[in-house]
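In the design runs reported in the main text, the only information available to the sequence generator was the tokenized backbone. The following block is the verbatim input for one such run; it is reproduced so that readers can re-run the procedure and compare outputs position by position.
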């Protein structure tokens, strides 16, 4: 997606340790016009899939998923929570997810009342690095007996191998911008 790539080159910042900071437009301050185009592109790429739910993980995926949902006929968005709270009750699907950015392992949770075998799910998230968040969400979808139509990622960091893990699991993966390298503070795209 050329619009996204240009925005990454213009406003993204490469930080030490292979971190690409895009908080000025994607995952802290959100450019809603750009997110709308991202949602439109996910709809184009998953055209023909009868999506009934979009699943993401808190917090950065929520805005992306909510705007994208409008392009899928305003299907519900469910986000897996990283911490237990008083208003998360009843039976839960859970999976362990390790965050590359924060170097923390979470027990992510999603209420069983919102996802079941009747659902066809699209998983969306902002970044794909080592693939742990996606694999955890895929596990939750499978626990529910739902069908996983695939995963949509805004930015995939190819050099960290998560995309290869997800594809090896037999899951369709559509990444809008694939980064091959962040060496010397420079973003190099794979496609």
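Verbatim output:
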């Amino acid at each position: 997606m050329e619009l996204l790539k240009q925005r990454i080159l213009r406003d993204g910042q490469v930080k030490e340790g292979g971190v690409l900071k895009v908080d000025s437009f994607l995952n802290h301050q959100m450019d809603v016009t750009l997110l709308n185009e991202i949602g439109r592109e996910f709809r184009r790429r998953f055209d023909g899939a009868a999506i009934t739910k979009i699943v993401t993980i808190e917090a950065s995926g929520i805005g992306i998923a909510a705007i994208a949902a409008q392009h899928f006929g305003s299907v519900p968005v469910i986000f897996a929570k990283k911490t237990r709270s008083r208003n998360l009750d009843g039976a839960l699907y859970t999976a362990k997810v390790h965050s590359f950015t924060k170097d923390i392992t979470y027990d992510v949770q999603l209420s069983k009342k919102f996802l079941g075998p009747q659902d066809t799910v699209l998983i969306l998230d902002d970044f794909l690095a080592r693939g742990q968040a996606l694999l955890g969400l895929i596990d939750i979808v499978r626990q529910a007996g739902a069908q996983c139509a695939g995963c949509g990622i805004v930015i995939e960091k190819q050099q960290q191998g998560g995309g290869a893990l997800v594809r090896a699991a037999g899951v369709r993966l559509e990444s809008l911008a694939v980064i091959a390298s962040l060496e010397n503070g420079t973003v190099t795209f794979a496609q």
